[in-house]
Amino acid sequence: MQASQTVNDSVSSDPRPRSAVSAGVGLAGMVGMLIWVVMAHVQQLDGPLAAAMAVAACGVPMVLWSVLVDKVHRHPTTGIDWTGPARPWGEVRATSAVKLIGLWGTWIVIGFFYALGRWYWEGAYLAAMQLLIAAIPALLLLSIPYVVLVDRRMREPRDGLWVFGNWLMRRHDRADDERLYDHVRAWGMKAFFTAFMISIVPGNWVEMIRWHESNSLNSPVGIVRWLIAMMFLFDVAFATVGYLLTCKPLDAHIRSANPYAAGWTAALICYPPFVLMGDGGPLNYHPGTAEWSYWLEGQPVALGFIGAMLVVLTAIYAWATIVFGLRFSNLTHRGIITHGPYAWTKHPAYVSKNLFWWLATMPLLTTGAAIDLIRATGLLLLVSGVYYWRARTEERHLLADPDYVAYARWMERHGPIPLLCGWLRARCGMRPPAYGDQAEAGVKTP
Is 445 within the bounds of a domain? Predict the structure, then answer.
């Protein structure tokens, strides 16, 4: 009892840094999503339009909560000033025109990239391309008032779009090189992952709606698979919202994109068409293995226990996306999240995902030769190593923000998993991670 009180006193005297997103945003999205899931189940709505509605069902409540309750549009981090008078139309005409050229030019480059990639015009990606093409007229029309209205209120209107627009018109100043590169990185990330997320939403939606075709509530395996499918749907729907609503008025814009080639490499090899873990990939650990339900068949207690663990791990994984609210995206900094599972570890999604794979695959058991056991275990170790690499490269990027440094230091003092890792490092004679004064001052660490 005294030890517990001591821990509580320590945390209260050293509070966790504030999260950039309130807990209410994710909760609002979850409520909207659950309502739509129930309605769709009753009507058995399993088409692409119903899948798109799932994204809207979680996105609209999050926008409303963010604006009406959290009033994110008034955050100083938006770079927008709603209090003073707006700049006159004549004053913003020139910068807005350059920014529209930059925006439309960016879209043209992205369209060219999509046209080059053959994988974008087959399979699940094809529906994503058709949706984006259908949205072009509306995007072009709405972009004009959006850019002009925001431009009138921005404290520093000469942002990445303005820099890129000037570059297209051959009026680029070399002093703006870093902003130009950051613009290219940010939109490159957005283009790559937006198409991917849109493409996988319908498949996850269908799997969740049609769960009864291959599963049964009388089977613990069936219940586990349905719960996992639903939580994966939540993950991809919330993530899709994050990629679609990258804008300053919602304070959901990209502060910076990861500038390190190692960070991009570690991330891209986890996604198609570059994925190394898929069928035929060098890190595909599945041949010679079987799922947990195969090895535990006929053992209801073990099936129930392992199934429950897999559900919990998937819930943590989905939760780690939900708490981002409108701000989820890979390879970017859009504000530091410190609540939810991020109060336990800096990388809850990676930890839970890898534990899920080890528990679901059971690589130490094999349906083939002994070499399959060695291969599956070794490859899964390499896969986990890739995600450790991703975590390290992401931290290298975020250490340029003093808010992340403060959060990382707090986690080292109070986070359950960092404390465990610290104890293990101490037992092995390893040095603890250092968050130096350079990072705290906002300087990128080498």
Answer: no
